[in-house]
Write the structure tokens for this entry.
Amino acid sequence: MTKSLFLDPNELRKPGKVKFTDIQVNQYKKTIEEEKKSKNFKNEDLLRIYRDMRIIREFEDMLYSIKTTGAYNGIEYNNPGPAHLSMGQEASAVGQAYLLTTDDYIFGSHRSHGEILAKGLSAIQKLDEKELYSVMENFLGGKTLKVIEGKQKDKGNIKELAMDFLLYGALAEIFARETGFNKGLGGSMHAFFTPFGIYPNNAIVGGSATIALGAALFKKANQKKGIVVSNVGDASMGCGPVFEALNMSAMDQIAKLWEKGYNEGMPIIFNFFDNMYGMGGQTMGETMAYGILARIGAGITPSQMHAERVDGYNPLAVIDAMRRKIDIIKKGEGPVLLDTLTYRMAGHSPSDADSYRTKEEKDAWAKHDVLVNYKDKLKKAKVGKEADFTKMDEDIIERMEKIVRLAINDEVSPRINLDVNPDTIESIMFSNEKVEKFDDREPDVLMPMEENPRVQQIARRTRFGFDEKGKPVSKNKVYQLRDGLFEAIIDRFYKDPTLIAYGEDNRDWGGAYAVYRGLTEALPYHRFFNSPISEAAIVGSAVGYAMSGGRVLAEIMYCDFIGRAGDEIFNQLAKWQSMSAGILKMPVVIRVSVGSKYGAQHSQDWTSIVAHIPGLKVAFPATPYDAKGLMASALSGTDPVIFFESQRIYDVGEQFHEGGVPAEYYEIPFGEPDVKRAGSDVTILTIGATLYRALKAADMLQEKYGISAEVIDARSIVPFNYEKVLESVKKTGRIVLASDACSRGSYLKEIAQNISEMAFDYLDAPPVVVGARNWITPAHELENYFFPQPEWILDAINEKILPLPGYVPTSNCTTLEQIRRNKLGV
Amino acid sequence: MATPIIMPKQGQSVESCIIAKWHKQKGDSVNVGDMLFTYETDKATFDEEAEVAGTLIDVFFEEGDDVPCLTNVCVIGNEGEDTSAFKPASEDDDEPAAAAAAEEAPKAEAAKPAATVNTSGDTKASPRARALADSKGIDVTAATPTGPYGRIIERDVRDVIDGGLGASRGAGAGIAGTGIGGKVRAEDLANAPAAASVEAPAAMPEIEEVPITNIRKVIARSMHASLSEMAQLTLNTTFDATEIMAYRAKVKAAGEKLGLENITLNDIVLYVVSRVLLNHKDLNANFTGDTMKYFSKVNLGLAVDTPRGLMVPTIFAASDKSLNEISAEAKKLAAAAQGGTINPDLLQGASFTVTNLGSMGVESFTPVINPPQTGILGVDTLTTGIREVNGEIKTYKKMGLSLTFDHRAVDGAPAARMLRDVAFGLENFSLMLSK
């Protein structure tokens, strides 16, 4: 939304037509001679293109042989891991990589060995020897280099060494060796090597589209060199997040609203390696509707995303297309969509019986095999003689045998040893670093912070929730939880120039709950903008942005919308630090807001779902002091954080921290629960806004039954330090755990179970969880029957922990009822 | 005509707004569409435009004031018009002291928690309650459960420790229901009348404080040392008392005529022990920690209850003495001990002790060893036993024996063998007499 763009009904209601221009299909017609004449290639370039394709073919054939026969050229090996091979697609990969530099990033799919090798070989060609050696020497402390160094025929030839390094690093990664590009933790479908501009490949179909968008956004918002190529398959055009990425990459505001210097098109090519199969599903003719994939570009932008189909069986056609597309991006007219037609000769994986295609079809494509055809063309054009190619083939096979022998040798290529170093994987689940800023330049802001109207408004507020007489300060005068979040956020915007924030209705509106009010005045568009309603692209792009070296604060409004970004949160955000063996950092904070009053799809607390996934930190502050401190901590860290907020308490004042919320910067470490009220008879542990109902329950226990309750606020749940809670339980012997999450599978059950194990002998009763019912959230007027109430906490204590004299329960939490409900699954 | 301007209500949950800025001052002329004031909620800022023209003739709030929604903020009209009718009632700053603050929080009810009903039959006790009971050496089942579903919880064990009466139990019709929504539950029935019939505790009896006698101190030291230093444990058995009872009946009937003592069942036990012990030298011994002192004869200690406390005179060389002699000596020693005239030399030197609480109906107990002896045999009361004889259930008289031994000196099996031999000797007493 913006007031600067006028929606004129007189214009908008006029009749008219949407016009399209033709989308080009396989229009490349040049001969080798013509290309040579136009000085695009020298003979050695043309031969190197053959060599690179031949290396990829040998690499994939080698894996196919190992997967299907347990050996390659007599070298026996069993590789139980995946191998999605790309024989037939070599020209597409080599053609694409030919012009790209190490400043250009590629992101790939599960079938990306060829792209890794092609981009790596291209980088080796372009980097000078000193740079190359330095890259190899500094990677993993030189461990990978050490394995292959000195094993070249032509000793001292750094390019030869680098080719061995590339092949070995990739293969050792596929074979799960510690000397592989990601210490064997990524594997075949996730291998990458950032010094060559090779960014993560992705085992989720289409997973790279939103991430690549984020990398492009990073380059754009931070004015970094290079372009980004998102390599996904044709079948991924059936994935919603891919469409989200296409749209978000081209959103109008960039040209219309973003500041000069930032208003050029997104530097990204969405390339689809269109091999016409999604596993066994034939895209063209069976599962998809587009006929020719390039057509989609016309549906996204008026520029039709400059879409075209290029013949991916001709490396020179692909290079030609890339040359033109890179120019478009350099002119600031991105994004671009490229449909690279290709065909995979082998199945989806070695276990694929090819039950969905005929021998005739495969044979027909084999006649178009690029290695054969391209070689013939070169011979005809007198670029090379048969003997040159035979020599090249022999060298490649010899090199491959050497690399395989090294990669399967347990002594030189060990796996990470979890017996000797059992915490190896544990230690890379989080990076746990503090980084003030990811770049040293001055942060781009629109005004000094003290002139910001929100900052001035907050300065007038009372920073503690009660006045001298102990009376609550009125909502309009009290420093609220949303102010705590704002202070931590604006602080980091003025410190870290790479920090950007986006989400739905962030700018102008100030976020649906007014946390961001004041940021619009403070920040330019390229640091703070409204995203389309595309949760997958919001989170996925944040992942790519962080991977490329920046920090993101993304917001997806309601917690319930997490489902729309399921893959991006669970498979991408959570996993890339560890799948990269700690090479990548993931400084992303995702704000989600837990609602109420708005029914079944706008009121859910999904902390438990998120906490279940390894690799995410999870916080849920309930007071202004904690909100500010935890947000400050999240925004100075290097780990992905799902930051839960509750719409019930954005306006709550600070009631606990003596002296109110400090004006200066401070951090609250993740994982430390906080005792909000001390007590001796029973412990109540809460997550989120339930804290205030627990305090009310504690009042009732004290006033009516003389029971002193200790109330602990979890504040964050991953990580979580049990010591304070155990200390409390050892004292009281009793604990009730309460949150607004549905009780079945609630994270509180996990905490309760751990307490049972760790404090069993101190327990006077089982830990009891009070959660929401396992229903839909009903209308606001009925919510008291759904969400935990203070009385429910007393009911649970009376029924399961400590019968209260004369107590009349309001809800049924008897064992029989528990059995009945579980029988019914409600 | 004067028109009041109210503070608008921006959304359901907004109760008041702050006036951020006045764009017109009192006395300014106002046209339709002019901005009057800017106001803000906790979430957003809004501008209020004039909808009538005239003069701003009164302003009720200043910048920064928090104005309840729908309250009059200012008045537009013709100069000189009366605005008093529109003036909002002034907010009473001094609210009556909060009721909560005035009222003292009720004191914790000291009422006893109600007992709860355990329908499972098995003892249910929380880990915390068990741990507490263990640490205080209390049998957790002694506590009255007040936890959910009849579970014994920490407070119930504390109740036992504190010597409280435990939770009140009762029977009869109850009234106040504590079930969901006030339904009457089994617990309510059990507890309601009990609560009504609880008697006022009797006035505390006067306490008499008496200094501990020396013998009590000796006993205290000796018994405490015994239990704290030795590895004592007790084996219990019973034996068929038919034969010794028959013998005792004979003695009663004709013993006097033969010039025999009034030989009691205890004398018979002493006699059998004095014979059996010769075959179990580890129990006819003193354990010093470094050495065992084995006795060639049996010097039998005899626990005697005296007005001044427990005394244990010794029948020296009992293994050399006849049943009649033992009986006579036991009576003489007991009388001397009770009369306080006993020669102190006779209160030491025993190699084993026999103690009898059976005469007081005790069926089984844990005698405490007199250090440095290695064993003590407790004699229990006669009870009626049943057994099957040729397919029929028959009753018989049986008597209990409780042997405590020092596991540092003797193992369980040899101690059990000794106890078995005593029981066998007593069951076959007529044969034993020839020993």
